[in-house]
Structures are given as C-alpha cells and as structure tokens.
Amino acid sequence: MKRVKRRYLAVQLEMDGVPSEKELMDVIWSSVVKFYGEVGASLTRMALISFDTSCKIAVVRTSLEMLDSVRTSLACITGIAGKGAVVHVLAVSGTIKALFKKF
Amino acid sequence: MKRAFADLHLKISQKDTNLQRTLQRAANFGYTYISVPFSSEPSTEEIEKLSTVCKSVGIEPVLRIDLYPRNENDLMNNLRRLRRKFDVICVFCGSKDISRQAAKDRRVDLLNFPNVDYQKRFFDRSEAELASNGFAALEIDVKPLFVLDGPARIRFLSCLRREIMLAKTFGVPLIISSGANEERFMRMPRDMASLSYLFGLGVNEALNAVSANPLAIVLRNREKLKSTFIAPGIRLVKAGSTS
Asked: Would you identify the CATH topology of the domain A6-102?
C-alpha cells in the first residue's frame, strides 16, 4: 500500500482570548468543508497535533496532496467561536522536528 | 534568491492614526513593497509623510494613485497629468468604454473591476487582448473572499476563474493584492498567494502574482521616471559639455 505523505503546519492565531482545541479544529474543518466539500475534507486527513495556548501557536497535520487546499482554507478563516480571528501559516514541514526548527 | 513580496493595494486612509501600526504589521508579515493608494492628487507633504512612515518600519513605499474616471476623456486627462508623478496607476473601470481605453493605454499599470457588481466586471476576451498588447495587468483583491459568503462568494470565484483563464490565455500579468481596509483582512504573502489557488492559479503563478509581477511594474516605472531615461532600453549614461 502506498504510504501517505504528511505535512505539518505551524499556525499562529491572532485573536482576542484563547479558543479551545475543539473550537479551533471546528472552525478549520468548517472552512475546509465550505471550500472543498465533504469529500475534499475527508482527503485532508487533518488532525491537531498540539496547541500552545500561551503563544497561540497550533500544529496541524495534513496530507501532502491536500496541503494547498488546507492552507487556502486556513487563510480564509475570519473568526473563531464568534470572535474575529486571523490564522497565519508560520511554517510547513515534513516532520514535527524540522517544523519547530523553522520558526 | 529570496523573493521580495509586494502588496500594492493596502486601502487604509493616509490620515488613519493606525497607519504606522498597519505598515509595521505589513513589514512583520514579510512585505518589502507596500502601496497605500491615493484617490486624488496628493500634496508633497502627504507623499513625504507616507514615505517617512514606510521607511521608519523598513518598507519601500510605492506611490500609487487610483483613478475613477467618469469617461474616456477624463481618463486621458488624468493620465496625462499624473503619469510622471506616480510609480503605479490603477484604473477602476466603471464602464466598458473606460475599461477598453484603460486596457489599450500603455500608461495604465493596473486594471481593477468592481468586486461585487458582476455586470461591471468587463474583463472579457477583447479586454484581455487589448491589455496583452499594452502594459496593463489585472489586479485582483482578495478581501471579498473574507467578506462575502454563500452564493455571492461562489459567483465571485466563478468570475475570477473565468478572468484568470482569459488572462493566462492572452499573457496578461496578474497581481494579487489584499485590498484590505482593516488589519484583520491583511494576510502574509504566502497565505495571500494560497488564496489564489481557489480561482485556478498554480503555486508559481500565485507567488509571482504577489512578488515578481508587481515588482516588475514598480521597477519598470521607476526606471522611466528617472531623469536619465530616454526610451525603453536607452538611458543617458553621461552628458557631454556643450562648449
């Protein structure tokens, strides 16, 4: 079976307050679903790896083939849990270790 | 070589008290060139003030004016008056006649169309052909992607996809700008490029639309504005004495 290549994205949240992990992932999923539909969303194999609430930096895993779609969906987020929010992608890497070296 | 990124349409007011903060934010995002457009002919003090603020945060300011001509004559008059004063001239095309005239005039750098009124997006086959013969590039603001929702956004994306296909066919350069009038609509350059995947641009084309294409316009026009410029490819190297 072909191995699925993954990519890890470090994302910085810019908003007042700190959302819960569930709120964060809900908004990312809904953005992906809004732009690429449920089939597209299922192909992303997205998962939240970590979320540092002190500096509001999250690490999100996705499949390489849907990386561009996930990145686009992240850039389109304008609010989390009813509060205005912006999500910036700080770095993208193939391993978590290399990701933390990048920013 | 590291890419230099440009946002040629940061639509904040020159009189905004947060101007410095917004420009600082743009600098932190990694932009090298930023343009805060003027909507009417500015005074020298206004230009100097903007340049000072930009330079204080480490950004190269690009002087840009947005023209909203009433008719073709108005457009021509404005171009004649303003071309040698600005790095970039953008024409907001409110009618088909204006858009056609703007596309074929080599003094126009950017063509922009109303974002919400789809009947007034005149970038069709003829427009693309005219623009490809001139120097005009098609500017696309990404702000509507954040403010529109549902069917309006679908229609907007559909229009953009059609326009981009035409621009690619005829070789019209594309510029992706934020069009942001608030900080929350500003995005990092690579995030802005990634938004253009939604309307059919590839990775390299998207990155060029926020770096190489806007820079080419700015550098070309700055070269023309130099006193040593004579014609494209010809410049004064040394002036001899008359005696």
From this structure: Alpha-Beta Plaits (3.30.70)
Q: Domain of B52: which CATH number? A: 3.20.20.140
A72 touches chain B (CB under 8 A): yes
Q: Are B59 and B23 in contact (CB under 8 A)?
A: yes
Return the domain boundaries, chain A. Answer: 6-102
Encoding tokens for residue A7? Answer: 């990519």
> How far is B67 from B80, CA to CA, in rounded Å?
12
Tell me if A75 and B203 make a contact (CB, 8 A cut-off): no
Please report the ipTM that was assigned to this predicted complex.
0.88
For residue B156, count other CB atoms closer than 10 A to its CB.
19
Residue A49 main-chain phi, psi, to 5 deg: -90, -50
Domain contains B237: no
Number of structural domains found in chain B: 1
In this prediction, residue B99 has a pLDDT band, given cuts at 50, 70 and 90, of: very high
Question: pLDDT (tens digit, 9 = 90+) per residue, A28-77?
Answer: 999 999 999 999 999 999 999 999 999 999 999 999 999 999 999 999 99
The B-side interface with A (CB below 8 A) comprises: 29, 145-146, 184, 186-188, 190-192, 194-195, 197-198, 203
Residue A28 contacts B, CB cutoff 8 Å: no
